[in-house]
Fold Glycogen synthase.
Amino acid sequence: MTPVRVLAVASEVYPIVKTGGLADVAGALPLALKAHGVEMRTLMPGYPDVMRRLAGADEIRRWPDYFGGPGRLLAASHDGLDLFVLDVPHLYARPGNPYVTAEGIDWPDNGLRFAALSRIAADIGHGLVPAFVPDVVHAHDWQAGLAPAYLHYDGRPRPGTVMTIHNMAYQGKFDRDLANAIGLPRDATFDVHGLEYFGGISFLKAGLQLADRITTVSPTYAREIQSDEGGMGFGGLLRERAGVLSGILNGIDTEVWNPQTDPHIAYRFGTNDLTFRAANKAVLQQQFNLDSSDEAPLLGVISRLSWQKGLDLLLETIPTILGEGMQLALLGSGDRDLQDRYQAVARANPGRIGVVIGYDEILAHLIQAGSDALIVPSRFEPCGLTQLCALRYAAVPIVSRVGGLEDTIIDIGEADASDRDATGFKFAPVTADALSGALRKANATFRNKGAWRRLQLSGLATDVSWRNRAGDYAALYRDLIARRG
Ligand code: ADP
């Protein structure tokens, strides 16, 4: 195996900074790639949390003026990850979320903040750090979308580039006047095969247009984003570039998500012995103020509360949930309106519906370990991670038939058609009616203990690890390097 060096560029990396699935991928993929002969280093911004955790990192370079203020490039190792950290206090030393203010508004200088990240990625691509000259620069999402653009417009020999889309909805759109401040030729912002996007610029478009390869996080999402609707403005571009676009499913960190060793759950359980799930269910019911009952199917949700996730549809099915004698434990945060509506439903249905608003990793583990089924009713879902964790914890997924949900769950009605065993319930179209139907079917199946157990066991037997998926990325890097010569 020829060793390959890859610079990954990501705006969040688990376990250091996480707002969503991108962090999980950026944190797990480098570890899984080691077995495939790929040495990956990850470049991320030096947010306060990062600087606190990586105190003692080595300084590699220092600039008196980097995008308007002093900046440094650091190298550090953390939890098996090899990191480059761009420490530019005037861009990143801010409290809270990496992308938005405490009021939930995008930081007004996000264009500058993430152009700075991409700029340094391109410089490392060109050999800024002699000890690590990458064969490939792998950019994740719009925050890294300019990395392929800087490399492209520079004109010097460059490494191969890969752009991965974790969510088409986030496109990094800015005013074209930004071009001067970020050091790209103004022509590039008028280039319809470059950054230009409906009179402005889009960092995501830059990456999609100029990277050698494009990947997204499931084969079905790779198809969906080539449509006008799924492409959210980029369907045409992606149809044109279909030859270099592929979908590689995400895995999960099977160490962090291991019911046999999980320190966050009340009772650990093995893959052959699910009896302790009942004990976890009892603790979960307590924590969500639900009636203690083993007979009532307990539905779990762990999600951002946003239009994408379809949780407004789940609200419409509350009468079905109550009518079928089911319970609901929901953990989520996001849209104010949805938060308020869920809290109101919980107040109106004590003992039956429990809601915790917030971000709580420990509680997320307990929901996976204690709920009977996990609901993911997304309108679109590039891959989705919670349903993968659910498979590993024997919570049966009930999911909409979109994106990675379609690819990772086998519906109870599909089992005969494929030679794989069913692992859950899928519904389409993404409507409250179809979701209600799936909930009723799940309830009926739950009453048949043998059938339910078969679903749980085939879920547990599903490979949700990064092992094979990392192999697909390694093959992609090698193929790209070979073709570029
Ligand atoms: P997305 O990245 O679109 O939010 P994914 O399913 O790909 O959705 O990844 C979400 C990740 O964030 C999962 O690891 C999930 O467990 C976690 N998560 C989402 N909401 C919460 C929450 N409120 N508390 C704890 N973890 C959460």
